[in-house]
Structures are given as structure tokens and as C-alpha cells.
């Protein structure tokens, strides 16, 4: 990263434009004054026509709070020490004067540390007039031929302007001349030598925006804001030298167009730049006297010089100012020399000085806060309240920031290293200020009269004079013209006849007279021709007037049509907006319903598959249970069959034994059958009686042994069991033991 890039303050994106109207950023210019004789170290370097670089002086060589040793700041334009007052005026104030004459407002203020050259920039010094005298000079240079007579325009004390008739104005002039009403300094009065050098300038700047069919009038006022109180510097006071009256503070009011103004503030009508500057100087002197009296410095108050320009169209004849208050356009240019920005601690200020510094800082801080909030509102689309009312200076200029004209600021810097810290703060604020946008003022409405009225009227008057001359009009006016005419004719030769035979003198005289007669005739013809030309020109002009009127009407109707269409567009846009919102709502609904549908479908699928699984499981269980029951039934049937077979077998066995017994008893010599073993059948024991542990497991009931040879130590049940097993092995039906009953 190179040195230049390192310290560069990052540029922010351009702010948002005003909705529906064009806007311009606050124009911030930087002027670097030359280093003072006693100043040793310089901390500022102009590195391009729009950038300056601040170098930290010796004591600040370490990086504090992450700041770089060099910091760069960019502005609309940076003027180095060699810039002349003329060039500065041309860049900074001339466009504002152009605007003023075109009926638009402007605000120009100088801002900077004490001693940085604010007053030098605004007021100037002898031989080097500042922006203020140069602006006055340009204004009067442009409007002088079109100025209204004194008191034709009259302020109404409510920030409005009234128009008086020529007669009323004349009466007022006479009244002021005879009654002891304080007079404004006349332009013919000799200029104060102190200021003569400041107002004289070779640069005859003029604006092209002057409307020749309007009449102009300039009013100036000059106020000072000290300790957040407004004082009128042009107020006429009958000062008592012994016991001077304390100056009266003025309040701020809002007019019917919501513009702020200083109530009861003196507005002086001026007819020339010299006169206006004289008024300004009177205010300056008053300021100086107040400063001496109150023991304060001029740099501790803000001074506001307001140039108000009233303009009204001439009537249809192009003769007088139109007597219609609504046709008066009032524009104003405020030239503000702000109090020096400084830290309280720096000058070791005490008591009143601390309060002063506090108030200055407070008002400058409010200015900063207002600018910050404005910028935030514009860049982020927020609508935070801008605290204009917190300070008189911001409250007075509220309209400018709300879109009442161009705002320009000249930041003055002293390259002296001692001012480094304060200059840093000033630079930051100034750079931020240029990010604020101010709505461009609207164009003045066009008046319905034909242009060129003033010239036509003047030409008509001249012609009338000439006609009067020819017809022997008023002597005092036409004598001069008549003399000129006679002088322009060739001189008559001498008519003295000394000799009766002189035939030269008379014919020469006759010839000269004939010559004069011819010239006269030519002049008369020329006049007649011009007269007829004039008539035809007037006819053409009248025709053109009619055409212009028609065009004006067309423009008016066009404007109305545009307005109507704009309204329609707005309505349609509103409808589109509503429809878009409705569509969006429907789409949202549709989307949520589709989502709901999908969720339900998924749930249904899940439930179906669950059901199928359940069915399969139930099917399996049914089959299992069926199998089990079939098996059980089979088992039970088999068991029943076995029981029955066993019973049959037992019966058979019994029968067989009985048969054998019967047969043996019939057959002699046959050995006795083995003694029949008696057994204690478990059945003999009652069913409810549990056998005791000593008795051991319940004994099987004895039954007759099928194999008597082994029956000596076997129980009947053992015998049965073995027989049963044998039968089982041989595949015969067996009877479960439990089913055996004897
Ligand atoms: N660009 C410049 N060229 C020459 N001299 C200058 C320039 N700027 C300022 N000065 C001189 O510097 C001195 C201080 O300037 P000035 O009074 O204008 O400062 P300031 O900012 O108005 O101070 P304060 O805040 O005290 O009113 C004056 O003597 C002035 O002539």
C-alpha cells in the first residue's frame, strides 16, 4: 500500500436522491491560507485540485487510535494559497448569484478554525474584496438597468413582499425626505475610504439570467448570532453614549410558506453595490462596537448577511411593475461567516469565554448533528427528526436543507501545525457534509405577458418624442432634437448681394435651399417609411403577441394536461402497487396451500403404508392363530381319541385279566398268580389336601401291572408307563398319563 492510499478516507456510496425531484450535494470547497510569519511547521499539503493531505506534526508522529500519520480529504475543489479572490468568487459564489437572479435561493457559509481565513474569504481586505462585495457587485452589474424605483417594492414584515404603485412610492419618498425617518445611505453618498478598495473591482461579472421584462429590487439585512441569541446589526438605535442600551435579541418565525425569518429584522432597500456594502459595513462597525463594549471577539459569533432580491414582471405595456403580490418572486442569498471552531481548553478560556466557546461548539455541534442525521436519512431511507431547533443557526437555515436552494460551504484551513487537531475535526465534518443532498429549487413560473415589452415601450417612447419634435411638441424636450436636425443640414451660403449684376449669390442660395428642401423631403420620406414600417412592425408584433398568447394558452393547457396525466399515472401506479400487493398475497397463500397439500399427501401416504403393514401383520397373526387353533384342535381330538382308546384298552385288559383268572381257576396245577399289589391310590387322599414335604412327591396311583414278573419293586404306574412307552414305540395309540383313571 503506498503512502497516498494508506491515509485516504474511504469514499462512501452516493446518497439517495430526493424522491420525485432532482437534488444536488452540498458543494464543499476547501481553501488553504498561507502560513503565518510566526508559524513554523506546516501540516497541510494540496496534492491535487480536489484533495489535500494532512501530516501529523512532530508531537503526533505515533499512530493514535489507529489513525494514520497522513490523512487525505477530498472536496469539490481545493484552492491552494495562490488562489485569488476573483477565481474563488468565480468558482464558488458566481453560480449562487446566477441562481439568485433566476429567483432561486442560496446559502454560502465559511467554516473553519479561528484564524483560518473565514472573514478574509467572505469579506476580504482592502484591495482584495471577498465573496460578499463581489456578489453585490455582480448583482447590481446585472440588474442595474432594470431596477424599480425606491419603495415600489415594500417588505411586509412577515417575510413577504408587496408592490406599490409609482404614485405611492413617490409619496413615500417624499414622506421619508421630509419626516425624520432614518434614511438609507444613498448610492451617491461618498464611500467610506476604509471600504472603497474592497468594493471596487475590475471584474464586471454579469449574469445572463436577467429578465428584461421584470423589475428588480434588492434588500439587505445583517444579523449576528451570539450565545444562541439573534441580534439585528442594522437596527437603528438612538444610542445614549453615557448609558448605552443593551441590544434586543430577535426571535425566529416561520412564514406562511414555512420559511424561517428573523422577526422584526431591519431590511434595507439598496440601489447599488456600494450602497449595499456601506450598509454591511455599518453593521460590521456596530458589531465591533458591541464586541468592545461586551469585551468579546468577532470570531465568537456567527454573522449572517442576507441579500434579498425581489422581482416582478412589468405590466402588459411594459411600463410599470405589475401590481400583483402573487407575481412577485423573492429569492435570497445568505452569506454566513461562522464562528471559529475551537476547543475550549486550547486558549485557556475562562468564565464568559468558556460559555461563549460552549455555545459556539454547541451550535456547530448541532450543525454537525443535523448534517449527520440528514445524511443518514438520505442514505439509509430513515426518517429521523433533524434537530434544527436545537440551535438558532440551524433553525434559521432549516429551509435550505429541506430543499429551498443550493448550499455551498468554504472550509478554510490554516496549515499551521498548532491547528492540526482542530483542522482534522473540521475536515471530517466537511467531508461528511458533501454527502448530504439538497433538493434542487423549482423553476420560477412563467408570467403570461409577451416578452420584449420593456424594449417596445422604450422604442415607442423615443418615437413619440421624435414625432412631438416634428409636430412642434413641447419645447423643453424637442428643442434639442430640432437644433440637432437643423445642424445636420448643409450650411447656407452667404446671401449678401453687393452687386446688382451678381448672378452667382442668389442662384447658389436657391440651389442650397433646394438642396435643403431635398434633404428635408428625404427625411420626411424616410420618416414616413419608418412610420409605415413601424405600423407594420407593430402589426406584426401584435400578431406575434396574439400568437404568443395562443402559445402561452397552449403551454398552459399542456401543463394542465401533464398535471392531469401525472395524477393519472400516480393513481395507476397506486393501483398497480395495490394489485402487486394482492398478487403477492395470493401467491403467498397459494404457496402455503401447496405446502399444506404436500404435507397432507405425505401424511396420507404414510398412513396408507402403515395400514398395509398392519393388514399384513394382522393377516399373519390370523394365520398363526388359525394354525395354532387347528393344531390345538387336532391335539385335543387326538388326546380324546387316545383317552377313549386307552379306556377301551384298559377295559380290554381288565377283560383279559378276568378271562385269564376265569380260565386259570378252571385249569388245575397251575401256579398261583403273584399276589396282587395293593397300592395306595393318591385319589384316596382328599384333593384339597396338599402333601407334606416329608412325604415327597405324590405317588402315582398304582395300576395292575401288565408284566407281573417285574412288578415286585415297581409301582403300578411304572408298569403302565413302560407299557405305554412300548406302545408308543411300536406306533400304537398311547394314552397320556394324566388321562388314566382306574
Ligand atoms: N488566503 C489568505 N491570504 C492571505 N491572508 C489571509 C488569507 N486567509 C487569511 N488571511 C489572513 O489571516 C488572518 C486571519 O484571517 P481571518 O480573520 O479571515 O480568519 P477567521 O477564520 O475569520 O478568524 P476568526 O474565526 O477569528 O474570525 C487575517 O489577517 C487575514 O488577512
From TrEMBL:
GO cellular component: mitotic spindle; nucleus; spindle microtubule
Boundaries of every Kinesin motor domain copy: 25-436
Entry keyword Chloroplast: no
Region span, Disordered: 1-25, 663-713
Keywords of the record: ATP-binding, Coiled coil, Cytoplasm, Cytoskeleton, Microtubule, Motor protein, Nucleotide-binding, Phosphoprotein
UniProt GO MF annotations: ATP binding; microtubule binding; plus-end-directed microtubule motor activity
Compositional bias segments (type: Polar residues): 677-687, 702-713
Subcellular location: Cytoplasm, Cytoskeleton, Spindle
Coiled-coil zones: 555-617
Annotated positions binding ATP: 112-119
Biased segments, Basic residues type: 1-15
GO term, biological process aspect, one: spindle elongation
PANTHER family: KINESIN FAMILY MEMBER 20B, KINESIN-LIKE PROTEIN KIF11
Protein family membership: Belongs to the TRAFAC class myosin-kinesin ATPase superfamily. Kinesin family.
Record-given protein name: Kinesin-like protein
Species in which this protein is naturally found: Gouania willdenowi
Gene: kif23
